[in-house]
Amino acid sequence: MRIPSDCQFFTASQDAVRWTRTLGRMQHAFLVVTLLTLALLLGGCGARGGSNGSTGTPVPQNPSGDSTTHLRIVGSTALLPLAARAADLFHQQHPDIQVDVKGGGSITGLNAVVKHQSDIGDSDIYADPVLYPDPNLTDHLICVVAFTLIVDPQVGITSLTTQQILAIFTGKITNWKVVGGPNVSISPIIRPSTSGTRALFRKYILGGAEESGTALSSDSSTSVLDAVAHTPGAIGYVPTYLINSTVQAIGIDGVSATAQTIKAGQYKFWGYEHMYTLENGVSATTAFLDFMQTPAIQQLAQKLGYISVSVVSGTAAIARP
Questions:
Q1: Helix or strand run (H / E) with residue 102
Q2: Does residue 146 contact residue 307 with C-beta atoms inside 8 Å?
Q3: Helix extents (H) in the chain
Q4: What is the Cα–Cα distance from 232 to 251, expressed in whole angstroms?
Q5: Is 73 helix (H, G, I), strand (E, B) or coil?
Q6: Fewest beta carbons less than 10 Å away: which of 177, 215, 217, 312?
Q7: CB of 18 closer than 8 Å to CB of 249
Q8: Which helix (H) or strand (E) holds 187?
Q9: What is the spatial distance between Cα 35 and Cα 230, in angstroms, rounded to a whole number?
Q10: Which of 276, 304, 283 is nearest to 78 (CA)?
């Protein structure tokens, strides 16, 4: 039997050491490549998930690690009930999109969208191109809302002429007895200047005249309703869908606010409800606007007391300046 020499043992030992070192270097290189690959993948995911597409706002991560897009809607308090209900229904169908809806008034909504502080600006009025000249500002008609004057039920008035309304809100008539009511001082409830409803009232009822008196600190239709209900001799105006037994709705020139009187061009205190966008083509915003036009939401609008745009597309729309 041949016994290996010490030299042969030494050579074999060197070979083993060199192989061990080579194997270690290969494992280290593989680990480095793996870590670099993971870093690139994670970086790519972070870049894609860093904004909601419409405003560049970082998309927050929910506890499960999924991305959530936030869609912000600000503006008209007249459109608020429909917008809020639609937002809840939309979120049920799109759990990855959170829709935040706030009021504040039509002017607030228009200013917010043009300043990139919201994705959608709700408004009772058309955006004046002189004040909002951006050509990318896009109008989306949603529905029509009818407004009505309301008074303290103790006043006992059922209708006022346009001239009487003008005199009351400009401070020329200050007691209800002048227009056939009780000997009670008139307390007009004035909306703030950010209110689109106030702008419609000034244009179509007051003939451009400004209301006199102290305005509410914030634009809220429910606040107006509550103020009229709890202030002796008060008068204000709200969407018809808010009317309840705490106030008395009154007509204008003997005409009440209904879809039929609006369509016939007999009643003039109403407005289109608009959703304005600036950055168009954004998936979440577009999806929500499409959702607002679905039969389900349009039917919901009518149940809530709004009127379909198609209802007033005839005589009333043509006569509307």
A1: strand 97-104
A2: yes
A3: 6-48, 80-93, 106-114, 162-169, 196-204, 221-229, 259-263, 283-292, 295-303, 315-319
A4: 20
A5: strand
A6: 217
A7: no
A8: strand 187-188
A9: 69
A10: 304
Q: Which of 304, 273, 271 is nearest to 148 (CA)?
A: 271
CB atoms within 10 A of CB 37: 10
Could you tell me which residues come within 8 angstroms of residue 283 by beta carbon, excluding any fewer than 6 positions away? 53
Q: How many domains does the chain have?
A: 2
- Joined tokens for residue 237: 């105006």
Query: From CA 304, how far away is CA 190, in angstroms rounded?
Result: 25
What pTM value is reported for the model?
0.77
**Residue 39, in any domain of the structure:** no
The residue segments making up the domain with residue 137 are 69-143+272-319
Residue 52 lies in a domain: no
Q: Tens digit of pLDDT for each residue in 12-43?
A: 334 433 434 443 454 444 443 443 443 444 34
* Local structure of residue 230 (DSSP, 8 states): T
SS3 295: helix
170 Cα distance to chain centroid: 32
Query: For 245-267, how does the pLDDT look when each residue is reduced to its tens digit (9 = 90+)?
Result: 999 999 999 999 999 999 999 99
Residue 176 belongs to a domain with what CATH number? 3.40.190.10
Q: Is residue 202 domain-shared with residue 171, that is, in the same domain? A: yes
Phi and psi angles of residue 97, each rounded to the nearest 5 degrees, phi first = -120, 115
Q: Would residue 257 count as lying in a domain?
A: yes
Task: Determine the Cα–Cα distance for residues 75 and 77; give it in Å rounded to an integer.
Answer: 6
Same domain, residue pair 138 and 151: no
Q: Are residues 202 and 295 in the same domain?
A: no
Which three-class secondary structure state does DSSP give residue 155?
helix
- The secondary structure of residue 252, as a DSSP letter, is E
